[in-house]
Amino acid sequence: MSSLIDKKVSRRRFLGISSCALATAAVGSQVTVLRALAKDGKVGEPATLPTRDVFTSCEMCVNKCGVIARVRDGVIQKLDPNPHYIKSRDMLCARGNAGHQSVYDPDRLKYPLIRTGERGEGKWRRASWDEALDLVVKNMNRIAEQHTRAGMMFVSTEGFQEHFFLMLAECFGSPNTLRHPSLCLASNIQGFGATFGTNPTPDVLNADYIIMSGANRSEAFITPDTIDLIKGAGGNRKVVYLDPRFTKTSAKADEWFPVKPGTDMAFMLAMIHVIVKEELYDKQFVADECVGFEQLVPHIEPYTPEWAAAECEIPAADIARIAREFAAAAPKAVYYQGRRSSFFDNDTQMRRAMAILNAIVGNWDVPGGMVPNGKIKLAEHVYVAPWYDDVPPRLDKDCVTYLSEKDGSWKHFRDRVLEGQPYPVKGMMVYKQNPLQSVPNRAKTLKMLEQMDFICTIDIAMSDTAWYSDVVLPEATYLERMDPVESLSGILPVLSLRHQVVEPLFEARPNLWIMQQIAKRLGEEVYESFDYTIEEYVEHQLQHLPEAQTMLETRGVYFESERPTYGSSRGKRLKTKSGKIEIYSEKYAENGHDPLPVYASPAAVPAGKYRLIVGRHAYFTHGTTQNNPFLHDLMPENTLWLNAGEAARLGLRDGRMVRVKSAVGEQTLRLEATEKIRPDCVYMAHGFGVLSKGLSRIHGKGGCDAELLEDNACPISGNVAMHQTFVEISPA
Amino acid sequence: MKNKRFAIVLDTRRCIDCKACTVACKAENNVPLGRDNHRNWVTEEPLRGSYPNLGQSFTPGQCMQCGNTPCERVCPTRATGVNQDGIVTVEEKKCIGCKYCMTACPYNARYYNEEIEAVDKCTFCAHRVYSGRLPACVETCPTKVRVFGDLNDPQSEVSKLLAKNPHRVLKPEMGTKPYLFYLI
């Protein structure tokens, strides 16, 4: 096993460089702090002549778009799109443009904080890094002694420095890492993975026919998909869009259907029915590349368009027509799988139906079809985690059929922490994630936090979760640190590097530094895995790619080709049991799940109630950017969307405050009476109704969906089901 | 050197109202926060039809860099002018903040900037343009709604787009001869 770098050399270099860098940072930051404060809210001159341009990549959401930061006198003036960055197609969205506000926001976390009052009371005292880190490690060790190392859980979400956090969990010896996918796309990955052996990417740019179920690409940005979707507008491109809301994607789609929530699978099965019955599928492709088609034929017999029309409230004639158009456009036709949280507890099976529909028209690995992702290989950082005896397996082990080992399932994990079974989890390290906003049933999450002996949160702002912690550690923002190179997979894979743009303000530090400091305190054996600088780490990642180093320096991105390669997986063994595309899944049958997707109607909306639905926004990323001054300016609070007819029936006027009540919680927010939603649903944007007073702009504004949503989950993937909650509305 | 006639051509069919342009402009030009303060905006047009037969479009807007400038005519101090390339300008030092120009502008394209104590508005990011770059809103737009260029150059993208496509201007009845063209 090769280690990342030679230990002895690195130790010396690491110490030398770090003390030096810290000295500069201290001097530099005093000056920049003053400038930042002077700049706060005041108008300066336009960013005419930056003194320095720095390539970096955005971290305002998950897309990692290419950015050029324009810096003058040590202050970031403006973030512009990087024209070389092929993934983001030379663009930057509202969030990306607001990025530097997270650096100069007076609300940002500035120093380590230690709680002095009750949890959630908001009483803190400023601590030195040494004191805060000593306290963190003291608690980690105490919990390990009292409850085994599994008694500490490590909560994180994706980002260029998450790797170091997960490494710390492993080196500390806890199996309990809990990431975001069970709140996001675990069911999607599972459903497509079971069918194709991988979760492919739809080739939006070249597709002639695209169907989307709730993938609101005009607002829920994914690069390059959002941009590619629009490029075809007015041409041969046809976009069919299903969503209970009239979104900005509806406004751009050729056809919009306000589908009844939870019935998309009926629509897909009926499309399959028509395509199979009328023999519109790709016979050669199905014979060569798929298994289980013969089981599909009798299976889809009852799923006629007429049957589906009654379920999903889309006319049978339209379903049949769309099925024919889709098959005719194939293989340049995709049922776009989206990339969002699951709607219902049968979500994995719904994704299976979607995958099967894609497969039978033969859109596999061709222009305009479903393309398996390419990835540029980086040198791996091999480390040896210490071995600890008597550590039990994951707390949520075996809670669902296919649990992702590092990601876990939030719903089940939290339930088991609350039960204290099979063993107690009493300590929590949090990096970037904000479960109080992101996990349905906030009351339960609060209970989980209450029973913890110790919680430490690393973040750039006082999130709700930070607000309920015992120690809060301020991370440097993405513009204040150098990050590892990230290999971004896709149809056109790229390497992305985040160069440091400015020195960290105040006492914020990069996550690697924080991890190193904790590792040092945990002991030599743990620290060995962290003994390098970020520059050394990056150099090692790129050791086999000298051309990448140059291109990352000169263009801020690295790619091997500007044109996609298609067909490389055709005729090759896929990563499924049979090595082929599995229409019928033996694997699911063996584990007691339906081997072909079986439809069940969603529970009906009870009289006097509404189904609460969630969705994404072009201005906000989940619960993280609502307090950003520029973005807050666009939308200072969320509203409850209610169909205008329903509002009139209830005698509720647009703009008045309403109380929304579900089985698990209650929130008050402003009503928006609108035609843009089905009469049986209500919607609110995510990320408001925050508990933390450290988010001064949005505290006390709007309502929190996580407070209202019930915590149902998919039994196959453990993904939460976001659309199974009914609410009552009354005047506030 | 020959003068230019700068213009923007917009394909609003591509606009998804993501407000990237609005935020880019705020960042580039230090526009103070507050939704009444804007150089650049996107209008969400009223919904067409009723549920479930709905349609909606979005119209980006900014100073129209008019060929016939009502703002210039009413300015008592000649703070507002037009430069050699057709960009309508405001001289901060000459502006006394009387707001006549704001009243005169049919496009509501001007706002009073409390912090510089002068009226402010879109300048086509002249500081960027004259250093060889695109206006911030044009460069950042995810779906490339906007195309910026010189109408005096028949080979420019804007000239070609206007030659090939039917287009309109906003509020033509005002006779302001705007240089923002919207493709139909």
Overview in brief:
Chain B: Keywords: 4Fe-4S, Iron, Iron-sulfur, Metal-binding. Chain A folds into 4 domains: 4-104, N-terminal domain of TfIIb; 113-120 and 133-184 and 400-554, Rossmann fold (3-Layer(aba) Sandwich), CATH 3.40.50.740; 192-374 and 566-587, Dimethylsulfoxide Reductase, domain 2, CATH 3.40.228.10; 610-731, Barwin-like endoglucanases (Beta Barrel).
Structure explained in plain terms:
With 732 residues, chain A is α/β, with parallel strands linked by helices. Helix content of chain A is 32%, strand content 16%. In chain A, strands 5-4-17-16-15-6-7 form a seven-stranded mixed beta sheet. In chain A, strands 22-26-23-25-24-29 form a six-stranded mixed β-barrel. In chain A, strands 11-10-9-13 form a four-stranded parallel beta sheet. In chain A, strand 4 (113-115) and strand 5 (124-126) form a beta hairpin. The longest helix of chain A is centred in the N-terminal third of the chain and has 33 residues, at 7-39. The model of chain A is unreliable at 1-45 (pLDDT under 50). Helices cover 20% and strands 21% of the residues of chain B. In chain B, strands 8-1-10-9 form a four-stranded mixed beta sheet, covered by helices on one side. In chain B, strands 2-3 form a two-stranded antiparallel ribbon. In chain B, strands 4-5 form a two-stranded antiparallel sheet. In chain B, strand 4 and strand 5 form a beta hairpin. Chain B is globular, with a radius of gyration of 16 Å. The model of chain B has no long low-confidence stretch (mean pLDDT 96). Chains A and B meet through strand 3, helix 2, helix 6, helix 7 and helix 23 of A and helix 1 and helix 5 of B. Chain A: Its cofactor is Mo-bis(molybdopterin guanine dinucleotide). Chain A: It holds the Pfam family Molybdopterin. Chain A: This is Nitrate reductase. Chain A: Residues 51-107 form the 4Fe-4S Mo/W bis-MGD-type domain.
